[in-house]
Specification:
Elements: H1 2-11, E1 35-41, H2 43-60, E2 64-70, E3 73-76, H3 86-95, E4 100-102, E5 110-112, E6 116-123, H4 130-145, E7 153-154, E8 168-170, E9 173-184, E10 188-197, H5 202-215, H6 230-233, H7 239-260
Parallel strand pairs: 1-2, 3-4
Antiparallel strand pairs: 2-6, 3-5, 6-10, 7-8, 8-9, 9-10
Helix pairs in contact: 1-7, 3-5, 4-7
Length: about 260
Amino acid sequence: MIKSVLSAFRQLDYPVPVVASDAEMPDDVAAAPTLSIRTDIAASAGLTLDASMLNATLLDGRRRASIWSSAAALVVSRRDTLLADFDAAKATLSQEGVPLFVRDSGGTAVLQGPGIVTLSLIHVPSSSQLEASYESLRAVAAAAFSPWGIEVGFGAVDGAFCDGKYNLVVERRKFAGTAQRRRSGRFAAALVHAVILIAPDLAAMTRGINRFYSLAGASHRFSPDSCISLRDLLPDANHPDLVAASIANLARAASAWRDEA
């Protein structure tokens, strides 16, 4: 996949970014890359990457961005771990070959996997208000998908997984789930990220999330009809090329955002 992404940059005449591997992540987190693109990794590796970049920004105050896609996994919030039957649900899913990981940001469960891309922005916020960081995320996504004529806004969507007023919305349906975490170190820093629906099977994705909550003893039930993917918006586009081109566009937009500082 990474070759496809780099090829997409060259075809679109975009600068080719530096791509960091696990081996290239420095021991000194302050020297961590300011843009990292990872594909076909474990979801846990993506979460670790974001945590490492957040730690680096806590030390040096620099803007950073990561873009990654992973193998199938369920990623839940710490709030989800408090559900009555969480441990039993995790064990059942593990036996079925679905790994479960816990993220540090808020919200509810999301499914990572093929056709889904995570965009993370890490920065020193200019305001204590969460809205400003979410607006940076929306603006980067809007810039990335504008070449396809897609307008990205905010809004809650009834029946959507991980719902909230800062969903990224296209045509009144959920296009990406968002969450945010803030920490203090030498600098105060925010990690804000979006799980973007490029070309997943929305019905299967929603069934997987609903199954987790059913096993965990929660009443949450979500509908695939509340969501929309880039493939839905561009039905004639080729699936692998669409994911690669989306990552290339996101990297270009994230680089521009990083360089504004």
